[in-house]
Amino acid sequence: MKRLIVFCAVLFLALNAQGQPIPLADSTVTSKHQTTANGQKFAYTARTGTQPVWDEKGKPIAAIHYTYYTRDDIANRDRRPLVISFNGGPGSASVWMHIAYTGPRLLNIDDEGYPVQPYGIKENPYSILDIADIVYVNPVNTGYSRILDEKVDRKLFFGTNADIKYLAEWLNTFVTRNNRWASPKYLIGESYGTTRVSGLALELQNAQWMYLNGVILVSPTDLGLKREGAVEKANRWPYYTAAAWYHKRLPADLQSRDLEQILPEVETFTMDELLPAISKGYSISNTEKEDVIKKMSRYSGLSEQLIRQNNLDIPTSLYWKELLRDQGYTIGRLDSRYLGIDLRDAGERVDYNAELTSWLHSFTPAINYYYANELKYKTDVKYNMFGSVHPWERSNDNTGLSLRQAMAANPFLHVMVQYGYFDGATDYFNAKYNMWQMDPSGKLADRIDFKGYRSGHMMYLRKEDLIKSNNDVRDFIKKTIPAIDKAAKY
């Protein structure tokens, strides 16, 4: 792979009060590369560096690190889509989708997503760079991004609405600097990143006058649309079925069927029987209660006794501990394909998140190697896989309704929801439920797509789903770019 390094330096400016390096407010390292994506061989340019956040007086108060990829053989970018990518946390860097999903380089893992050695980076033949340019953004204190002025109020950055406000301003500058105002624009966010991009869709529209073509929600949060009481307790059940199916804990007649044949049946049971049963509390008849318990057991791999003892309410923390307790294993929270080993088989909570430690095992060396050796971004600033963003102000989270408002005001705006069936943290059925509640009239339903995959929170870690999910993004972009001169109207 050929590279031309246009600018390279040790990218830190000074030390903070704790003696830690802080990055330059404004810097760029540019390099040239080649790849083959979606069967097309082409050259591309990578620009990685920092762009400031300014205060009201024009003083840089934070440096936001980003990596921006553009395909080289594009004469006119006015019709070339720009995909703006965020991860979650809210204190998580953009590393996950950057080097495991949509970007031109892929970390070294096996076909199911587990770490292998030697650690490293390889070509991603499934990247969407063939069809769109991509920028990966690290909010303050994630990746190499840092606050520059220690006297600055952290509330300017660390809260649902503050995060959306300053990132919208930052994106305006980025789009202007890179002459992308004419391009079709897309936001993609994963986990808490879905909260971020849902709020940004309206903030960009209302405060920056920037209109989008699409928002992609990967493993979405509740988006401020609360799921409490009986709804919270019932909506877990389709995920429980998926996890039990994967680990072969369902009855033989269910286990012999394909997962996507079973799930609609369980969804119907959840909405039509389980939710009403839980809502009735002690007023439910013994006959109805026992019938529901039998079905709950049948669809979850749990014993009837356990369900009965817990009054039809099985928290996810207990499920991750209980499903394979007899085998001495726990299952992962974010991806229940992963197994863990606790100090004691007894108890109601797992000792650690088996999936997250596995991911950090493979991603951390890969992203540090990639920036230093392939992008030639040299810095003494530590790459924060997870940075300190606490306390995070979570009040007034109306991001789901903001996304609906943005869609209502912009007929060009479409949404795609992607989820893994084995994700127990932001589970697939709640993702569907939230979209139903976000648009109760159904007037926007023809602009909302749902895509499910046989993996977990980061469904793209499994090779089969990496291929499928990137193709789904590619198809989504193609279908949401309107014909030339088509008017945005109802």
Automatic annotation (TrEMBL):
Superkingdom assignment: Bacteria
Amino-acid biosynthesis found in the keyword field: no
Record-annotated membrane-spanning stretches: none
Gene3D superfamilies membership: alpha/beta hydrolase (3.40.50.1820)
Signal sequence, start to end: 1-19
GO terms for biological process, alphabetical: proteolysis
Single GO term (MF): serine-type carboxypeptidase activity
Keywords assigned by UniProt, alphabetized: Carboxypeptidase, Glycoprotein, Hydrolase, Protease, Signal
Keyword Glycoprotein tagged: yes
Alphabetized SUPFAM superfamilies for the sequence: alpha/beta-Hydrolases (SSF53474)
PANTHER family: RETINOID-INDUCIBLE SERINE CARBOXYPEPTIDASE (PTHR11802:SF3), SERINE PROTEASE FAMILY S10 SERINE CARBOXYPEPTIDASE (PTHR11802)
Protein name (database record): Carboxypeptidase C (Cathepsin A)
Source organism phylogeny: Bacteria, Pseudomonadati, Bacteroidota, Sphingobacteriia, Sphingobacteriales
